[in-house]
């Protein structure tokens, strides 16, 4: 392991150890809805990775009495029972580059249920959340066209009807402490930038999705875990969690979301946050997050075998060197450049992360962008912006490519990085329904992998055009 890798690993373990006792949820630069212990409406928590609602509301409200014809929703809500449905569908077209070109259709129906046992049974601070997905598509662009690394659409997944999260949470001390237990995902709370959720390519970061077993505990796969949250004051929060470290590959081992195994080595994640100028405070708002993770499993060295020879060498044993654990550190920042209200104005965001390169395909990763909200006259709920995602291929993986060229006369290109640029506009048609035209350009798919049509050339990048519709009830 190189010195830089040892440093990243040590820092990642240090952060995980130091922060294991504190917790929180991901927060945007500013929000008028935030209060201690209630960072977002529970029934919208799983919606946010795909859509930023702003001031929009459920389609039910715009329908009037026909939206709840027998007052079932209102009656259940009086007992602390909330349910919602979100349907997202989209058409995306890869018009050049990748393994193949052409349009695809994708859709996801999500049903979620939240129960407040304080209202239902007088048990204050106790709640339950559960959600399910029905995922359907004609072939995702990331997997079909661009080599399965950077996300093109954050609803892309194996077509299935599957359970997702189901957990209970107990809060106490005026909601400043919270303990959550059950089938969890990490992407709703850890390593997220709320303003980035405008973009179709914004997802569980590539550096965790590519490096952790089965992509880690993130959409559409959940896994058993426990999460502790602590809010010492209104501007500081922290969270820590322990997950089963191998949630099971969604196509083979976890097709229905019912893999409740705890046999995998644990994955520990921790994050601390600081916010300023929140809610109605004067001045421009902002937030910063520092986090880390450590996986206690064993991982293959990407370049050398068990006796130290290059895996590409004809003399190699072909058995990779096994390494103990992997880790990563990350920072997230969201800064308001111009204010126009609690959720309006101009905001920039970034996420930056690093991991050891000897055992991880992606050893450095960053994304960032700028979002304009409420800036279009007469369209207070519209948002638009631009983003960029970068994933760097690790030194050991690049070294393997060089060894293949040097030792076997394989003229494959040496992988380097992949990136995606996106421009998107989200417009509210009516409360509960938004439509989003989108443009992306993918650079060096999967880091510059070999073309199946020419083993000396890379798969070409190219543009992607799309249109998404999201309906909330």
From TrEMBL:
**Cellular component annotations (GO), alphabetically ordered:** membrane
Q: Does the keyword Transmembrane helix apply?
A: no
Say yes or no: keyword NAD present.
no
Gene Ontology process terms (BP): carbohydrate transport
Which controlled-vocabulary keywords does the entry list?
A: Signal
User: Gene3D superfamilies this protein is in?
Assistant: Carbohydrate-selective porin OprB (2.40.160.180)
Q: Which GO terms describe its molecular function?
A: porin activity
Which interval of the chain is the signal sequence?
1-28
Pfam families with a match to the protein in the record:
OprB
Q: Which family does it belong to?
A: Belongs to the OprB family.
Query: Which protein, by its recorded name, is this?
Result: Carbohydrate-selective porin OprB
